[in-house]
Amino acid sequence: MAGAESKSFSSPDETREFKGKGRAEVLVVNGRTVSKATFEPGWKWSVNLRPIAQTDSCQVEHFGYVLSGRMRVVMDDGMQFEVGPDDLFALPPGHDAEVIGDETCVLVDFGQVQSYAKPPGP
User: Where are the alpha helices (DSSP H) in the chain?
Assistant: First the structure.
């Protein structure tokens, strides 16, 4: 069993800047990667992260909790939904997303975020 460990997003292990309008602060605690992502108004995955991911849609599995703001998610099959403050969500690979409105969207993601917002390796 892993030992006790505590970290704070005020001193993240890594900060991954998006191509404008936000960033992901990343912590690794007992081998588990968690991110706190900040998406500014006007952020859209297909504009601000597609150039980093180099995929047609987001291929990361997310499991998160929204702290503030709102986001619309559009799955590759056309299904859409919105998340906002106090919402918990599970999101499989194959989606686009965008901030709705003028408020920054902040969420904590416990999903498969080890490589989220990182350029693909050689």
Answer: 45-48, 50-53
